[in-house]
Write a structure and sequence with these properties.
By secondary structure, the protein is an alpha/beta fold. It contains 19 helices and 14 strands. A six-stranded parallel sheet has the order 12-11-10-9-13-14, with helices on both faces. Strands 3-4-7 form a three-stranded antiparallel sheet, with no helix packed on it.
Amino acid sequence: MNLYLFIDTFNWYEDEDAYLYTRVMLGCYKGILRRQLDKNITFHKTVAYGVAVNATIHIIAHLVNIERYHLSQSKQAGELSNKLSGIGKSMNETYLNPIRNYDTNTIIEILTTIAGVTGLLITVSLVLIMTSSTEIIIKSFYEVFWYTHHLFIVFFVGLVIHGMGQLVRGQTAQSLLLHNVTYCKDHYLEWETTAQCPLPQFSGKSPAAWKWVLGPVILYICERLIRFWRFQQDVVITKVVSHSSGVLELQMRKHGFQMEAGQYIFLQCPLISQLEWHPFTLTSAPEDDFFSVHIRSVGDWTEALFNAFGAEEKVFKEPWKLPRLAVDGPFGAAATDVFQYQISVCIAAGIGVTPFASILKSIWYKCCNLNTELRLEKVYFYWICRDPSAFEWFADLLCSLEAQMVEKGKAHFLSFHIFLTSWDESQATHIALHYDEKVDIITGLRQKTFYGRPNWNIEFRHIAENHPSDSIGVFFCGPKTLSENLQKMCKWYSSADPRGVQFYYNKESF
C-alpha cells in the first residue's frame, strides 16, 4: 500500500501542470542523484570494508565457538554439556557437538568439514582480493589486481556451499514437540528413562546464503552477457597516430555508438588477452564522426598494445593487419555535467587532463554552432603538470582550440591557466629569454604558462568576484590530496546567501 501511494503521489507531482514551474526549479535534483551514482567506486570500497570487518567478527566468533565445543568434551565442563556432547555416539542418534572427541586437534577436525574447507577458501580469497586492491598494486601491477579480483567467483561459490556444512546445529521441530526443553533442561538425568524427556534430536539449519547471493549474481551475469554482446560488435579502426610524447591515439567507429563529452569506455584487445578490459577516457567530442582514445605506455598491457599496433617501431601497418579491438560503453562520468552550469571550472593534474580533451572539443563545437543553445557562459581551465612534453598531444589540442576561438571572436569564452611544477636551470634560462614573445615558449598558447603551483585561495577568490551571483561547477581529475583541498575551497568560497555565488564540486573517478 505504501509503495502504491508513493508511486501515485510521485506521478501526481511529476505530471500535474500546477507543479510545472516547481519541477523546473527542482530539476537539479536529477543531477545530484546522478552524482551519487558517480561515487560507485567509493561505495564499492565501503562495502568491501564492511565485508572485511564482518568477516573478521564471523571468523573470531567461530574460533571461540570451536574452542567451547572442544571444552564441552572435557571433564571440566558441566554435566549437561558432557551429556549433550555424548549424544550421537550410539547408532541412530543425531549429534549437537561437531567436535566428537576431546583428544583431537580441533583445527584438523574442522578442516575436514565442508564448513571448514569453504571457510578457509573464502577467507584466503577475501584476503587476496583486498591486499591486491591497494593503490600501489593497481598502479604498478594492474594485471595482478585485475586477475586476483576475479577470485570473487571462488568467494561467492564458497559462500553458497559454506552453510551446507551445518556447523551450528539446533533441536529439530519434531523433537521440540516431544522433548520440552523448559522442563527437561533441569532434569537431564531422566533423559531416555521417562517418556516426558526422550533423547533430543538435532540438525543443522538449511543453507540460506544463496538467497542473498542470487540477486546480485543474476545482475552480474546480465552485465556479462551485455558485455559479451558488445564484444561481438565490429569496431572499425579509422586512424592510428603515434605521438612523439609516447602516446598512441586510436580513432574508431562502431555502429550505434553514442557518447557524451567526458565519458569513458572499456577496451579489450583479444590478441593480448581474451579476459582483460581496461578503462580509457574518450578524447573525441560527440560531434566528431568517430570516437578516440589516447593511450600512454605505462604498464604491461599498454606496452603490448603499442607493440601490436607497431607504435614502438613506428611501423606503418595496413588496416587489415591491425589487431582487433572490442569496445564496451560508453559509461557516464561526473564531467558530463560541465554544460549544466553558467560557469565551469575544469581542473586537471597530470594524466587527469584526459577527460577534458573531449569536453574542450565539444565546447568549441557548441560555440561555433549558432543553432546550439548553450547555458555555459565561461570556462576556466587549469592544468597542473610536471612535464607538458609528456602530454604533447593535449598541448597541441589547446593551441588549436585557442586559435579557433580567436578566429570565431570567442577568445574570452575559454580561459587557460597552465602551471608547470618542475623545470631545470637550462629550461628556466630558455623561458626567460623568450618571455616577451607573443606565444608561450612551453605550450605555444597566447596565455602564458605559470611556474609553480596555483594559489587556490587567490584563484577561487578571483572567480567568485567575477561571478558574484552565478552557479559554478568545479570539475577535477587528479590526486586525492588536491581533490580534498579543492572541495574545501568550494565550500569556503560559496556564499551563505543562496542568491550569491555557489561552487559545486565534481570529482572524476573510475
